[in-house]
Each structure stands twice: as C-alpha cells, then as structure tokens.
Specification:
heterodimer; A: mainly alpha; three-stranded antiparallel sheet; 8 strands; 71% helix; globular; B: mainly alpha
C-alpha cells in the first residue's frame, strides 16, 4: 500500500522519459498527472495513522529490515510534496522548450518526488539513507541542468557538502546498527536513551548533519545561493519551497523520534531550555541575520530570494529548537506558509525569466503593465513573506514572536525582528526594480505568460489568502502532529489562534481591513478624476529625459545600507571555506614534498620507525 | 442593523477626528518651527486649506498601481487606527495588538512605496530605499522595547499595557522605566521622519523623495495618511509610556505635549546621512533598549 506511493513516481519517471522523446510536453503532463494522483490518494489516507509495511532481506548473513509507516508528520510532508509538484509540473508544461534535456528533467523530477515520499515514510536508517541519497543525486542532476555556466559549480558544491554529511550519517547509523542489530528508529531511540549522553549526542549530531546541510542552516548554508539561483527556473520553487523543508523533517525525526530532546533534557539549561537547544536556536538566529544581510546586497533576483529562504528557515529552526507548544506550532505554520509563498515568488520570477530571459534585476523594469497577474502573484507573496497582516505569513511569525517573548529569549527575538523588518527591504527590491519603474525598450512587446502558467500562480494566491483568514485549517493537522510527537497542543479555532499574551483573530482583522480600505476608496472615488500620463512625464529637476533605460533606479538599490556591512560581507564564509581548502591542499603538498620526496633513505627511515613503534606498542600491550 | 450603523458611524467619527487632529498638529508644528527660525510662519489652520485645495485641483496619475498605492496607504492607516485606544475610545479591544499595529503600519508604508515607485521617477525610488533602510534602524529598538514591556506586564494588548500603569502617575512607564521612554522618544522622532532623520524626504536633495510625483488628490490623500500616522504613533507613545488617559481631552493634551517636544527637538539638529542614522539607532537607542530589556527579563 505505502510502497505504491514510492513505486508509482518511479515507474512514471521511466514512462515520462520515454514519452518525452516523442513529444516535448508529454513528460511534464505525466509529472502533473502523477502528482495529481498522489495528492488525491494521499488526501484519502488522512487519519489512517496505523498503516505499516516491512520487508526483510538476508544480505551476507545480516538480517536487514526495511520499514515504512505513515504518521501525521510524514503525511503532511508527502501532501506538500505532491501539491507543489502538481503546480510546478503544470507551470512547466509550456516552458519545456527552454530545457536542453527536458526528458531528463522530468525523469529526475519524478524520481525526487518518489524519493521524498520514501524519506518521509521511512522508519529505519537504511531506507531513509537510500532515498536520501537518491534525492541528493537526482537533485544534483537537476541543479546542474541549469543553463548557466555557474550551475555546474554550484551543483558541485552542493554535492560535496551533501556527500560529506552523508558519510557522517552512514557511520553513525552503522555504529548504532552494530550495537542494536537493527536499523529501525525505535530500537535506535531505546539504545540512545540507555547509552551515555555524550556519545548519544555525538551520534545524533552526525546523523543530523545531512539534514542541517539540506535545510541550509548557518554555517552550512553556502551551497544554497548558487544552487537555488542557478537551478532551472521551474525547479527553484521546489528546491526552495520543499527540499529545504525535507531537512527540517529529518531534524524533527532526530529531535523527537530519536529522542534527542529527551537525551538533553537534564543537561545544563538557559532559561529552562537545554543549552544545546539554545545553541541550535542561536544558529537559527545567525542564519536569519546572515541570510537577510546577504539578500539585501544581491543584484540577481533568484539569488536574492534564495538568501531570503535561508533567513526564513532560521525562523523555523528557532521555533523547533525552543520546543514550546507555541514555538512548535509557529514553526510548523511557518514551514507550510513558507512553502506556499516562496513557491509563489519563485513561480512569478520564473514567469518573468520565461519572458525576459534574464535574472539580473537591473536589466528589467516596468513589467507590471505587461504582466499584471505575475505582479499580483509576486505582490501577494511578498506581503506574506514580509509578515504583513492579513496574510498567512504574519500569523506564523506572530506565533513565533509570542513563543519567544513568553520565554524571554531576547536575542533570538532580536534576530527574528531584524529578519522580519529587513525582509521589507529585500522583497521590495525586485518589486521596485523588476515590476515597477521604467519599462526597458527591448521589453516593449512582452506579453503575460500563457494560461497554464497563470493557473498555478492563481491557485497559490488563493491559498495565501485562505490560510491568512482560516489558519485553523493548518492548525488542525499541526495539532495532530503535536499530539503524535507528544507536545501540548495550542488552542485554536477555524479563524483564531490562542497565543501566550492574547489571541489572534483573523476575521476581525480582515473586516477592519476591509473597512479601512472602503473608506480610502470612497475618498479616492469622490475626488476629481485624474489624467493618465506616461512614465517619462515626471518631475526630473529640469532635466530633459528621453531615455527610459537610464531613468530607472535599480542597481545597488540599498547602497547606503550595504556600506554598513561592506566589511562583514567581504569576509564571506565561502571565501573562508575556500581558503581552508587551499591551505589544506598546500599543507598536503608540503608534507608530500618533505616526507615523500623520492629519496630512498627517507623510506628506509620510515620503515625503521614503523618497526620501532610497532615493537614498542607490542611490548607495552 | 442598529449595531452596524452605530459601528460604521463610530468608524467614520474616529477617522475624521484623527485626520482633523493630525492636520492641526501639523499646523502647530509649522508654527513652532517658524518661531524657532525667527519667522512668523503660516496660520495654524494652513494644513486644512492645503488639503481642501489639493482635493479641488486636477491631478495626474501614472497608471493603476499609482492609484492603488495611494488607496492602500490611506486604507492601511485607517485600518490601523481602529486598533488604537484613544483615551476611552476604543473600537477593537482585541488582544495581541501591539505587534499587530507595528506590522499594520507597514501596510501603509508598502502601499505608499509601491504607488510612488510605480510613477517611474527614480527620485521616488531613492526616497523609498532610504525610508526602508531607516525603518530597519528605528524599528529594532522599538520592537526590543515592546518585547520588554510585553514580558514585564504579561500582556500584549495596548489596552492592557495602558491599564498596567493605572493609579499613580509614578506608575507611568515614563517614570518607571525612564531610559526606555527616552529611547522610544528618539524612535518616535525617527518614525515620524522629523529633522535629524528626514533623509528619505530631503526636499532640497531628492525632490521630497516618495511624494515627488504626487499632486492634487494624491498628495491630499498622502497628507491625510501622514496626519493619521502622526496620531497613531503619538497615541502609541502616550498609551505605552504616559499611562493613556481617562478621556479624549486629556489624551489629546498628552499627545500634543509629546508632539511639541518632538518637533522642537527635531528642529535643532541637522540631517543624518542615511547610514549614519541607522548606525546611530543601532548604537545608542538599541544598546540602551537591550540593556533595559535584559534588566527586565533577568
């Protein structure tokens, strides 16, 4: 039963690959159909949390068990995956001609969908690892399929980090297997609880490394910007909206199902929170701040939004790390909302790239009159991202603030406030430079994107507003997840959430908002009608302006602000890692030159030394 | 039905009151600044004449986003106003309003920013870029103060925070936490875009920045928006630090005192460069606010 959800995308992947050879659009249609089917059938699984499956293999004398099971948490992630892939596949039907290898794109996309569903259903390390690696490798291919030259390098960096982390994961899980004789999470949790805390924490740190890389948490976030910025435009929404969250899923598994939180419960605490959790939350805070500052500096709109994803992940991390009922609900809300608004943003940008063929913000401008729906999608999504009421983004941030104030975590709250106020700055930059301002002469003939691209954007706008007014829909599944993980649930109704210092009621807000707008609209409507003039017909201090291209303020939009952080940004972490690599290579080279220079005497000396050491060891033992 | 009519009337009454009061305050400020600069200055009712004149004039627009921006700016502040207790007047005593109000004000800023940048004038973009940068400067200390206040009184509704200071005037946060009140006062000057922190409008430099393209009813609406914003920000200060008030008259008087002080302080200082303004906010107000907050949470 559960295997079907994994097998169907895998079989469909082959079908899509073959069909794509005859018709370029067929592959995307297959992807859309399969993810639509997955969405519907997963929705039908809601509430059946007792489904389980297992397979036994006997490999070289080892009894290997593959376990699959469904719970509210994995259901949510599977549904999110299916839903977003449906929208992206719909969007990508029209733009298949932009791909060099569109057959391979659909093949890999379906493989990723299948492997994510495999990851969230997995109940043991081995299954998790297999699907995790499958996801990493297929997404590696997809990232490097981007048309840009940098895409290959970006994917390479992503692969190196993922592979390194995967080794750590494998070592730790094999160690646990040796001790317990099973890869299952349940027996691992028992073993880790019984084991010495220091060793358990070390093992779990190794296990969670791939998840931290995938979630883009500081200081392992360096792959995110290049990978998300250079990936194919249709894949970026998935990469940013969904794949980062799979890392969070893994962390939740480590924290709750492998009982990390239980292990550190009685260690040193700060304000009632174990110090390790607090440090993890601080990592989230640093992630918010770095992501934000770097986003403001970007001139490439996809990289800007990629950095914004990094900083938004920080909120989710903070909420999960402080582990209060409100914090957990807030970060789960933010996780879903981030998926919705971030994919909307990336789809809107993909529509812009589809029409203009560039990602540099200063090469565009004034697209609002040509692509109004794309603009509307972007605007709605950034209002949500900046956390402005009455959208879904405000609710989740509000819940996280309440959680932080309740516990008195000043510095975490400071980072959260910083990220949210500064997000106005970076989301406004593409709005102002791409959609508003002067239209470039070469973009005079641009049209709105075709209908199949409009539908996903319209659906996502609808979801943003829906979740903004009825957060209870999300809270319903979140409360089941909290119950499953053993966290207290937060009181909620369809349109209100009970915080620590008061309740949120979105119906009130929505009504008052409408009232305010109606009054403003009346004032506007009753005043004299105004005359429409062109965009070049503006106050220019007496300058005679004819050239729209040079009359557009776009390059280095926040230069004064960037100046404050110039020194900090020059010391980039990527640079640090590169220096580290270079030094490592140089040290190795130096060692090789002195130790293995080809002189026979040296080798003779080594043999003697080795013999002496071995003899000494043997004698001591 | 009666309830809806009553409520609508109440909405309109508060809107008109805030607009009128804000315009009056603006007139008073112009008079004060004139006197400080040894000029006679325009009459106090000059802003009313300005608004009436502007709505009577022909205006130009640069497309639908320009219109939408103006409506969103005014609509956003009117919506925000309904959440603020003005003396004993309070429409929505819903809890959780302090953070909500801060973010609701952003709706108006976003609307104004979008509309003016939509005009295609680079000076407007420049002004908005500065305004958003400065916003990051002053909002941080303000939010830290709110953090401390909410943590201290265990409520986040403005009404609740006001009630917590009831009784003796020594309970006012102005006297209980004078450093915090001082920081909030500096932040208030920055929020209202008064003199040391007015690089975003800088009339002689970037043609008044955000409002460079607005004329006629657009400028009129932005003036009304400005007047309501002033009332919201002053009312927040009075509610949070001066213990609110029993009735609207005393409340207005308190707002007026804060406004006159802010105007006088503002007109004494030359303009900050934008990044120096941000650095100033992050150095002194934020530093003091963090120390105060640490004192409260520990």
């Amino acid at each position: 039963m559960l295997t079907n959800y994994i097998l169907i995308p895998f079989i469909a992947a082959l079908a899509a690959y073959i069909l794509n050879k005859s018709n370029k659009k067929a592959g995307a249609v297959v992807t859309a159909l399969v993810s639509g089917y997955l969405l519907l059938s997963l929705a039908a699984l809601y509430g059946r949390w007792d489904l389980k499956e297992s397979f036994n293999f006997n490999l070289l004398g080892y009894q290997l068990e593959f376990l699959l099971a469904i719970n509210p948490l994995s259901w949510l992630f599977a549904v999110m995956t299916a839903a977003i892939s449906l929208l992206i596949a719909l969007f990508s039907i029209q733009s298949q001609s932009d791909f060099k290898f569109s057959a391979a794109f659909n093949l890999n996309f379906l493989l990723i969908i299948g492997s994510i569903i495999g990851i969230v259903f997995a109940r043991d390390f081995l299954t998790l690892f297999i699907f995790w690696e499958l996801m990493t490798w297929t997404s590696f291919y997809l990232i490097s399929a981007g048309k840009k030259k940098m895409a290959g390098k970006a994917a390479y960096r992503y692969l190196i980090l993922s592979a390194g982390a995967a080794y750590a994961f494998l070592m730790a899980s094999i160690y646990i297997f040796q001790q317990t004789g099973s890869f299952a999470f349940d027996s691992a949790a028992e073993f880790l609880l019984a084991n010495s805390p220091a060793q358990s924490i070390l093992l779990l740190a190794a296990v969670s490394l791939p998840f931290i890389v995938k979630a883009g948490i500081f200081p392992l976030h360096i792959w995110v910007k290049d990978a998300h910025g250079n990936a194919p435009k249709e894949f970026s929404p998935f990469l940013s909206g969904m794949m980062l969250k799979v890392g969070i899923y893994g962390l939740l598994v480590v924290f709750y199902q492998l009982s990390f939180f239980q292990i550190i419960e009685n260690t040193v605490a700060y304000r009632g929170l174990p110090l390790l959790s607090y440090l993890f939350a601080l990592l989230g805070a640093v992630t918010i701040i770095t992501g934000t500052i770097l986003a403001i500096r970007q001139e490439d709109m996809k990289k800007l939004i990629a950095y914004s994803s990094i900083s938004q992940m920080g909120y989710i991390i903070i909420g999960i790390a402080i582990a209060t009922p409100l914090g957990f609900s807030g970060s789960m809300l933010h996780l879903m909302n981030h998926l919705v608004f971030k994919s909307t943003i990336f789809l809107a940008l993909a529509a812009v790239i589809y029409r203009t063929g560039t990602t540099k913000m200063y090469e565009m401008g004034g697209l609002i009159f040509k692509m109004p729906l794309t603009f509307a999608a972007y605007l709605t999504a950034i209002i949500a991202l900046a956390g402005i009421p009455p959208t879904n983004g405000f609710i989740s941030k509000w819940v996280i603030y309440q959680a932080l104030i309740e516990e008195g975590f000043l510095f975490l709250a400071l980072a959260a406030f910083f990220g949210s106020i500064a997000s106005f700055m970076y989301v406004f930059k593409p709005l102002s430079t791409v959609f508003l301002g002067q239209l470039k002469p070469q973009h005079q003939d641009i049209k709105e994107v075709p209908l199949l691209m409009k539908i996903p954007m319209l659906v996502l706008i609808g979801i943003i507003v829906l979740f903004g007014v009825f957060p209870g829909i999300q809270m319903n599944i979140i409360s089941q997840i909290s119950g499953y993980l053993g966290i207290e649930t937060v009181n909620y109704s369809l349109y209100s959430i009970q915080g620590a210092f008061g309740a949120w009621n979105s119906l009130y807000i929505f009504n008052i908002f409408s009232a305010g707008f109606v009054i403003a609209l009346l004032i506007f409507g009753f005043a004299k009608k105004s005359k429409l003039v062109g965009l070049l017909d503006t106050y220019s201090s007496g300058e005679y302006v004819t050239d729209a291209e040079s009359y557009h303020y776009a390059y280095q939009y926040y230069r004064p602000f960037d100046r404050v952080f110039d020194n900090l940004a020059a010391k980039s972490l990527t640079g640090f890692y590169e220096t580290l690599t270079n030094n490592l290579v140089r040290t190795g080279e130096g060692l090789r030159r002195t130790l293995a220079s080809g002189k026979l005497q040296n080798y003779a000396l080594y043999s003697v030394l080795l013999f002496v050491i071995l003899a000494a060891v043997g004698w001591i033992i | 039905m009666i309830d809806i009519i009553y409520r609508t009337g109440h909405f309109l009454l508060i809107t008109v009151f805030a607009m009128a009061l804000g315009l009056l305050f603006m007139g008073i400020a112009r008079k004060i600044i004139a006197r400080i600069q040894k000029r006679y200055g325009p009459p106090v009712y000059q802003p009313y004449l300005d608004v009436l004149k502007l709505f009577g004039k022909d205006a130009i627009t640069h497309g639908f986003i320009f219109d939408f921006g103006a409506i969103m700016a005014l609509g956003g502040v009117i919506a925000t106003l309904f959440f603020i207790p003005l003396g004993s007047w309070q429409l929505y005593s819903m809890e959780g309003t302090v953070l909500l109000v801060i973010y609701l004000l952003a709706v108006a800023s976003l609307g104004m920013a979008m509309g003016t940048v939509g005009s295609g004038n680079p000076q407007a973009s420049l002004g908005i870029s500065r305004a958003l940068t400065q916003m990051l400067g002053y909002e941080l200390p303000y939010l830290v103060i709110l953090f401390a206040l909410i943590f201290r009184y265990q409520t986040s509704s403005i009404w609740g925070l006001m009630q917590a200071q009831a009784g003796n005037y020594l309970n006012w946060n102005l006297f209980a936490y004078p450093l915090m009140a001082l920081v909030a006062f500096v932040v208030l000057i920055g929020m209202m875009g008064k003199k040391p922190f007015d690089a975003m409008i800088a009339p002689s430099e970037i043609g008044s920045g955000p409002v460079v393209e607005s004329g006629g009813k657009y400028l009129g609406m932005l003036l009304l928006q400005k007047s309501i914003t002033i009332i919201i920000e002053l009312a927040l200060y009075v509610n949070l630090f001066l213990g609110g008030a029993e009735n609207i008259l005393i409340f207005t008087l308190k707002m007026l005192i804060v406004w006159v002080l802010a105007t006088m302080f503002g007109s004494l200082f030359p303009r900050f460069r934008i990044e120096d303004g941000v650095k100033f906010f992050w150095k002194w107000p934020l530093g003091i606010a963090i120390l105060q907050a640490l004192y409260i949470i520990i």
